[in-house]
UniProtKB/TrEMBL annotation:
Its EC number is 3.1.1.31. Residues 11-240 form the Glucosamine/galactosamine-6-phosphate isomerase domain. Belongs to the glucosamine/galactosamine-6-phosphate isomerase family. 6-phosphogluconolactonase subfamily. Keywords: Hydrolase. It catalyses: 6-phospho-D-glucono-1,5-lactone + H2O = 6-phospho-D-gluconate + H(+). It comes from Streptacidiphilus cavernicola. This is 6-phosphogluconolactonase. Pathway: Carbohydrate degradation; pentose phosphate pathway; D-ribulose 5-phosphate from D-glucose 6-phosphate (oxidative stage): step 2/3. It is an enzyme of class 3 (hydrolase). SUPFAM superfamilies: NagB/RpiA/CoA transferase-like. Hydrolysis of 6-phosphogluconolactone to 6-phosphogluconate. InterPro entries: 6-phosphogluconolactonase_DevB, 6PGL, Glc/Gal-6P_isomerase, NagB/RpiA_transferase-like.
Amino acid sequence: MTAPQLVVHRDKELMALAAAARLITRIVDAQSARGTASVVLTGGRNGNALLAALASSPARDAVDWSRLDLWWGDERFLPEGDPERNVTQARDELLDAVPLDPARVHAMPASDGVDGDNAEAAAERYAAELAKAAGPGDHAGVPSFDVLLLGVGPDTHVASLFPELPGVRETSRTVVGVRGAPKPPPVRVSLTLPAIRAAREVWLLAAGEDKAEAVALALSGPGEIQAPASGAYGQQRTLWLLDRAAASKIPPEMYPPSSS
Ligand SMILES: O=C(O)[C@H](O)[C@@H](O)[C@H](O)[C@H](O)COP(=O)(O)O
């Protein structure tokens, strides 16, 4: 388990810009080292703000978009093209503006696909796609993602793993169907903590006053069942990217020495 590293930015706008710059550099480093990179995207306002900042970054095209694998940490289980789907929002914010290899954009199944409205079957399908992409040195039957992004909910949920619900308790499967999600829509598909923890780096995004309680709780170590975000960590790095409002209730001893 890698101890969480905290970075606090002045406000959510600057956090999105800084996180986008950080992601560009991380992808460029991975591509320089291995000729490819893989990133897991997250839904939500902070995740989408990062994608929008990346789309408008002057350094955007330092990334070789044709050699980037994109996966999702979770997805709202809705028909293809539904504006509420995370992949639809990601396309609008960034993906349609950059020359990605469509074969390397791994969207989670929609509810009108081959599995129909069976979220569990859709989850199994995505787990099989992840396992097929995993290599001999990878963990948990998923690729060693360079960066796995997670927005943090006000109840400390990450992806579609909600406190006390079955998904956060999953210890072997890499992808699960979620029903009865407290955050609409109720039916989702989500990576599990074992899959999340296979990533080289896990970056948790939280901005705004409405996240201050969740951030303080998750960092105080209550356990992942009560606070799923506290169970999200990477093999090499766990990074909390915050703004001052979201960091306003963390214990003083955890507050990083400088913030921008
Ligand atoms: O499908 C989703 O809704 C997201 O993946 C979810 O996990 C999101 O990241 C958090 O709820 C934070 O969302 P906000 O950034 O909008 O607060």
